[in-house]
Specification:
single chain; FAD/NAD(P)-binding domain; seven-stranded mixed beta sheet; five-stranded parallel beta sheet; about 30% helix; binds flavin-adenine dinucleotide
Length: about 300
Amino acid sequence: MQIIDITIIGQGPAGLSAAIYTSRAGLDTLVLGCEPKVAGDYDIDNYFGFPEGIKGRELIQRGCEHASRFGAELRCERVLSIRQGDDDQSFKIKTDQNEYYTRAVILATGVSRVRPGIKNLTQYEGRGVSYCVSCDGFFFRNKKVVVLGEGLFAANQALELLEYNARVLICPQGKKVDIPDYYLQRLHESDISFVHKKIVRLDGDQVLQKIIFEDGSEQEVDGVFVAMGEASSLDFAYSLGLITHKMFVDVDHEQKTNVPGIFAAGDCVGTFLQISVAVGEGAVAGRSAINHVKQLKKEAAEAAKATFE
Ligand SMILES: Cc1cc2nc3c(=O)[nH]c(=O)nc-3n(C[C@H](O)[C@H](O)[C@H](O)COP(=O)(O)OP(=O)(O)OC[C@H]3O[C@@H](n4cnc5c(N)ncnc54)[C@H](O)[C@@H]3O)c2cc1C
């Protein structure tokens, strides 16, 4: 099994900056993610070294070329889940196209959490509303649950819920379904169907018991899993057990999270949502990840040497 040294989730300023450092240090570096929002026709007027301004698209393009020049591999793949590997020293990453094992992960996903627009959703958090199937799916064994979301992330969460024998519906909350055909086929074969009415309110005494749709109709359910848009660093934080504050991942001054081997940088840590800050934090996260991986390799080499002596 091939283990990648460092996998970076995000091709924005934070992820690309980290990739420049990690690949330049000679570690194999995989960068997952697609064009960030800022890579459009926007004038960036406050980034160091560009007194005449630069278009967001060009800045990101240059960042991609810079990281690639040192050997980082950039792939436009959407990460669906990150789990601790079997050996406690690696992580397993599942994307819409592949599975990878890696020694360290740098989260640089920006902030993209899409809200489902249900007024009293937070009132039922921990009482039927959840954001993480791998954390809470167990509590919904043989129960009826709705996954909120329109994309691959929601489809993946819905399929994962089948491991708990749950009866699953997907509600895109008025958004256009954006799930590839092969996944739609899997949903169909697994008896997971869509409900296309929008949920406006939740109801239940102490715990969630029913959902109320915009046309006033109701449906009894035991659980609601929120998986709108793309999986964000917050979703990965739930399944990895990372400490968070509000919608951001907690890190120390070296961009380390509370889980060894997981680092975070840029908008997803919520310091000051600017390109210059994301680039700086990416560099620090890159250096910390380099140190982490070098230490793991050193320990492995020492252990191997000890067995031969
Ligand atoms: C329109 C616009 C204009 C802006 N103008 C300025 C400006 O003038 N000056 C300035 O300093 N800042 C500006 N900003 C803010 C700046 O863009 C952000 O602070 C910066 O891009 C944050 O960088 P990041 O790398 O943390 O995240 P992002 O740039 O948001 O990049 C996130 C990356 O993560 C990837 N990703 C997310 N989820 C997943 C997943 N599940 N799987 C795989 N990949 C994933 C995305 O595809 C993307 O590549 C602007 C932002 C926008 C949207």
